[in-house]
Amino acid sequence: EPEVTQTPSHQVTQMGQEVILRCVPISNHLYFYWYRQILGQKVEFLVSFYNNEISEKSEIFDDQFSVERPDGSNFTLKIRSTKLEDSAMYFCASSAYRGLTDTQYFGPGTRLTVL
Amino acid sequence: GQQVMQIPQYQHVQEGEDFTTYCNSSTTLSNIQWYKQRPGGHPVFLIQLVKSGEVKKQKRLTFQFGEAKKNSSLHITATQTTDVGTYFCAGPDSWGKFQFGAGTQVVVTP
Lengths: 115, 110
Hints:
The complex is a heterodimer.
Chain A: E1 5-7, E2 10-13, E3 19-24, E4 31-37, E5 43-50, E6 53-57, E7 65-68, E8 75-79, E9 88-95, E10 105-106, E11 110-114
Parallel strand pairs in A: 2-11
Antiparallel strand pairs in A: 1-3, 3-8, 4-5, 4-9, 5-6, 7-8, 9-10, 9-11
Chain B: E1 4-7, E2 10-14, E3 19-25, E4 32-37, E5 44-49, E6 55-58, E7 61-65, E8 71-76, E9 85-92, E10 98-100, E11 104-109
Parallel strand pairs in B: 2-11
Antiparallel strand pairs in B: 1-3, 3-8, 4-5, 4-9, 6-7, 7-8, 9-10, 9-11
């Protein structure tokens, strides 16, 4: 069964450093998403991406964040200058159609620890 | 903005018992989705409800979408240890952003 993959599974970084989290969505999907989950809290929407541009983004997704689909398979989330409060689990998801009415398939997540 | 609330936050259940978790939105939803997240895992899609008053069953799980499409429930019968995890409901807001509830963490005691 096709699945969303994410690398790395765990990323440790120093405050102020840039990190890039990588995702490979399911191959025939067209919509891609990033979510984050701070330990013990709910899943929070960050951004959705379609046709090589951002469709929607939340208040959390400020200028420190950017997303990119550099090639036909990868979907990346970049945090330019990490802060302690960026420590969280980051989930990538993809859907064949617009996620509002379609199943979103989540990847296993990348645990980001900012020291 | 839209808020999605879930109650209870925690649910301790004896194996074999039934329980229900509830999801309420401050605005009408076009659809609602339910996810299960096992401890240390990622959210896994369970089901989507679209129609007003819709009821769907998956084995011991029964999902319901309210008539006003602002609330939903998940009822589990004869709870098993495999039901352990956090159950999230999620729905799109008017801006197209997917809002998750805070989840109901389910603990099952044998």
